[in-house]
Amino acid sequence: MASSLALEATEDVTVGDHRVRAGQRVVVSPLAANCDPSLIGDGSALDVRRRPVPHLTFGFGVHQCLGQQLAGLELRIALPALLRRFPGLRLVVPETDLRFRVNGPVYALRALPITW
Question: What pTM was computed for the model?
Fold first, then answer.
């Protein structure tokens, strides 16, 4: 997914408190939209119990990724299988020592040191 998109308004529209006139160009960031605190709260914390929220990770509408359902299915199968195979799976370092990539198009762990 692109880190930002330049779009041109085809008609006058109001987005939040902002009026965009037909012909004006707007730069939007799907990545920033995925981190909206009004949807996810503290985005810096991994919360596997967080309620499902809308996001743009797999695109939207006619531009939705065809692999989205496959990715979801893989996670529903792979994670339980991993935990069954390695029931003692755990972090090698304290959770507070985990470091994240924050200056790229994808927010992700730099490394996930584990043992079983």
Answer: 0.50
